[in-house]
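question for whoever is on the cluster today: can someone run the full assembly for these? two chains, 1030 residues total. i dont have access anymore since they changed the login thing
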Amino acid sequence: MSENLKLQPIQNWLKKNNWFFYDHQLETLNQSINGHDILLIAPTGGGKTLAGFLPSLHDLINDKFPDNKLHTLYISPLKALTIDVHRNLTNPIEDQKLDIRVETRTGDTSNYKKTRQKEVPPHMLMTTPESLALLLADTQAKEYFKFLRYLIIDEIHSLVNSKRGDLLSLNLSRLNNISPNCKRIGLSATIKNKKSTLNFLSQKKNSKIINIREKSSPKIEILETENRVPWSGHMAGYAITDIYKKIKLSSMTILFVNTRAQAELVFNKLWQENENNLKIAIHHGSLQKEIRRKVENLMSLGKLDCVVATSSLDLGIDWGKVDLVVQIGSPKGIARFLQRIGRSNHRFDEPSKALLVPSNRFEYLECISTIASIKANLLDEVKDKEGSLDVLAQHILGVACSNPFQIDDFFLEIKKAWPFRNLKKQTFLDVLEFVRNGGYSLKHYEQYAKIGINKNNFYAIKNKNIRNRYRLNVGTIVESYMLKVKLGNRTLGQVEEWFIEGLNEGDTFLFSGRVLEYQSITNNNIIVRSTNSAHPKIPSYAGGRLPLTSELSFQVRKLISKKEYWKHFPNQISDWLKLQNKFSGLPSVEGLLVETFPRHIKNKKRYFLICYTFEGRNANQTLGFLISKKMQRMGYKPISFVATDYALAIWSMIEVEDINVILNEDIMLDDLYEWLEETPLLKKNFRDAAIISGLIERTIPGRKKTGKQVMFSSDLIFNVLKKHEPNHILLQVARNDSYRGLIDLDRLGDFLKRIKNNIIHKRLDRISPLAVPLVLEINRQTIDKSEVDEYFLEELENEILTEVGLN
Amino acid sequence: MKTLNFCNHGLQICKEGVLFWLEKEIAIVSDLHLEKGSSYASSGQYIPPYDSEETLLKLLDILNNYRVKKVILLGDTFHDKDAFLRMTSKVRFLFEDFTKKYEVIFILGNHENKIKIEDIKFHQEYIVDDIHFLHEAIQKNINQISGHFHPVASIKVSSKKITSKCLIHSNNHIILPSFGEFTGGLNINDPVLKPFISEDYNIYFLTKKSIYKFSNKEIESQY
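^ ran it for u. tokens below:
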């Protein structure tokens, strides 16, 4: 270490633990001392967090800083991470008796503590983007952040290009005005778009990227098994015994799954297998906070053998002794998987070890592709996104809550937030009007405006009440309305309202690792009791599974189309493909395989149409909407479809005859706009935008609307706005978000061109091997709901009439 | 349109939720909740102000197709006591058009407490022959048509739930769905509706395209 760096206490502490500084930690320190803002890109476990804090620690140890002022602000996307980092940082500080106060502040922090933190700020505060927004909306914000010297943003890659990132970025720009000399350090996992992440962090000319490469590539295997890999499903039940054996051989295992339902099921199965009484715990986002914290604590103490976890454990939490990472189901993305395996052997000079467990046959192919992509050093591409206007609306109100502003200065500040660099003045003014009075063309609500304009052209909120309401609505994550699950007096956690709607009294489901029987809903609590039932109804409260990135989709397509690859597959996989080849045909590289066959659902004959596009779930979903629209117009009465990463399955009441008409290029022209305007996705995005922008409130003091009520009224608002103000800001936001959420439509266009005159149509009398997984998918998309409802009602009415002999 | 026999009178319901007694040239409609949108503005929630216009245009449009002289509004015509004052001139114009064209009977709803509008008289109850028109159903053995509850029903078909507004017909009770553009709904299974629904009842389930009649047995057998 060079002479001019004085870090004796930290060095002493490291020495005590037999640790040493990594080069990149010292480089980060040096560059920061020289005045650079730094984006540090390093694999997990590279001592990234310490690197981020070194400059700040160095400054606090060596330089005079007023007591009771905020010195360092640390922002992380996860509450759990703030707690973890707090713990890791407190160790050396306490051990070396340094006079540095470190505290966390999140939505979970008590009001008492929050008030105290405002009066007497700690030296270092660890918080989330939402809590930062709230701090900055305080009237004392300028005073509070005036002395800030360091700003650390952890896991910055997970924030850029999202609405949360938009919010953070606007607040970063605000901070820059309050404390212009504050130095920034961004910490990121390995990413493809380094430059735009750096711009997000800092637009100072001398900002720098420090990029640390993984020293050894990870060792990844696919689970070898004697058992049958199922054709469909996401639960990997076949592999539990084999996985259990691996857990026994390791000192600590993290078992990642993609959904909460998977977590519950796998956890349950493991305990059925658990003859050695291993300590196996579960961790997912629906569980009560206390339960999660307890598991996290036991993990860091090394007191567990295995934790079954969802992405609630995804981000850089440092778990000492994990030596095996198991991924059940395809990780669906290369970067995401690398992040997860970074968990094992948390020393980045040793290779990480991981075991992939595909839960069905398509996933087997995906897992092979994932390994190939990692070997070839391919990374997923993330598209840059413009700042969202609903987030801007929220921010404008936040700033108005903090202090009066003038339009021109404020607009300049906003433009300095990277996602909003292209924002037009007129758009800004429109959003401002929207926040002030709803922005309707006739200015109906000017008399009730939230933000008033004073004589000197300063904008300020009209009363304190507006600030209080803003505080309740801050944030960009719109969650489904959650109900508490109560077992006696204990709260086990929360599930979405719609999950419970599908349950009847006496139904059993898995939650928090138990089999529970649903009894009733009382005061927004779900009352359950424990049961010994061995066959719980599988919970479908899983919510969105992670989408497959296009890079991986492409790899799978290559794999399946070339028979010479198949010899590397286990027999059951290659047999499956051979069977498909014999029974129907194989998807070709250039053309498109389409299958049609009849099938009974609940005693009713339905006609299935399957397109093996291998274009990824988003493209398939769009295609599904477009095709079903066309089928509707042609009178085939489509009911529902499933879009997976590999294929699209649509079923209808009437059989489709000419496939070429359905898959014609013109579906892009005819129906795209019309479809987008009607899609449930647009309505959902509108609802989110309405909540984020503050048009609809999340909560009203003293009274909580149920999620359903909000949903209902946002649909009504959507319909009325479409008619009367078709260019309203929120409709713009919803449309943009929908386009973005879908795909590049170009890709779909190219696809349709490519397959023109190149469609192989197999008319089958029953389902094909390749189609089985699709038909068994649960994650269905409803086509234009009202239309389908009518079909069903007609059918039901006819049945009733037949029953009473009137038909 | 579907016809229902109510205490030996033939009434007709259209899919938008207006009930007709054509023999008497009467139309009955409930819970318009005019100016519900603008009622949130004073608390800083700027819900679009176009609901009254939509509601009135829709109503005028439907009434135009039938021989109707009298319109009975079963209460909560206005979302709150100041609703009338908040109307834009365009909505005022539509409203006046409506009250000039028809003899409009206003029943007083719970949202209209202390409401005062020039030239408008609010009735607690209105009677035609043996039928009582009320805002909220009462536990009394009289033939009554009321609104207030905004009933909706959920029908399970092919393992999915379809929810929509409905009219409830139970013996000598009819409860009309809400008509207003921005009105929500209360499920027919809600306990507060129990006192007014006998063991046998029918619902008229209203969708965008049609009306479906279900008996309570048909609905219950689904669960």
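summary bc i know u wont read the tokens: The domain at 219-375 of chain A is CATH 3.40.50.300 (Rossmann fold). The two ends of chain A are 91 Å apart (CA to CA).
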